[in-house]
Structure prediction request, 271 residues.
Amino acid sequence: MGFLLIEGRKFLLFGVANRKSVAFHIAQVLKEEGAELIFSVFGEEQKRTIEKFFPDSAAYICDVSKESEIEKTASEIAQKHGKVYGILHSIAFANYSEGVKPFHETVKSDFLQAMDISCFSFISIAKYFKSVMENDGALLTISISSTKMAAENYGYMAPIKAALDSSVCFLAKSLSADTKIRVNAVGASLLKTSSSAGIPGYIEPYLFAEKLTLRKEALKTEEVANAAAFLLSPRASGITAQTIVVDAGMSTNFFDRAVVSAALKFQQPGK
Ligand code: NAD
Prediction:
């Protein structure tokens, strides 16, 4: 048995779209540690990804914007697999089709749709899967490293992630009434995945974030996955109701000397 003590335990993973997905990397770590994996994916294309890369695992299609599909998936999984130890929610959606607007011009329907898919679905999964989880299991979602850094190109997603972080605490409390299920989030900084590629003008902030890490090396998706696998494992038994930040130190480094000097040079050409 490896350090994480998850050999033979069942995990249900929401959010694999392709090989770059955060959930894909988490699945790889859990598999390496001997866990049994079950997937819930958005559609047929994502299901084919699972069939290709995780041929031993079952994959269920579930659009989490439809509560009835979450309920149906929960009962199907309960019937076919029994209880699972851990559930990963690695899902987000934002409609940037009109580009990013100034925050106060956020389109209400876009905001509510993003809130539904990226935040409420986590609450809904907790509701319908509570009885499908082992009593001392773990629920995990993927948040962002800071919800107060008002990055213009991220638009309204940061307030939605703030609601997700808060939901982590409320779920941990409400589930504790009659279970020992732990609920946590990994707060990841900027990564290279297909979701982030869809954020308008993402590449410059991504490269800037790399300069702000203490090690001057971008955060890797597998580093987020390692933290996630730990939080999903019994080794994290003392951790609940937390967002654990994984950002290679970026959030401590606003006044990095090289970055400050580059910014001042940029503002005062020739000086
Ligand atoms: P991704 O596109 O690979 O994953 C997003 C997943 O959400 C996809 O699998 C997609 O199919 C799923 N999804 C969207 N709408 C859905 C719906 N209605 N029903 C079911 N599934 C749906 O991108 P990712 O970067 O792996 O994102 C995973 C999580 O990581 C997200 O919560 C994201 O906000 C978070 N995150 C990403 C970064 C980054 O830089 N990429 C940084 C911090 C946090």
The first strand starts at residue 10 and ends at 14. Residues 15-17, 21-23, 42, 46, 63-65, 90-93, 117, 142, 144, 188, 190-191, 193-196 surround nicotinamide-adenine-dinucleotide (CB under 6 Å). The chain has nine helices and seven strands.
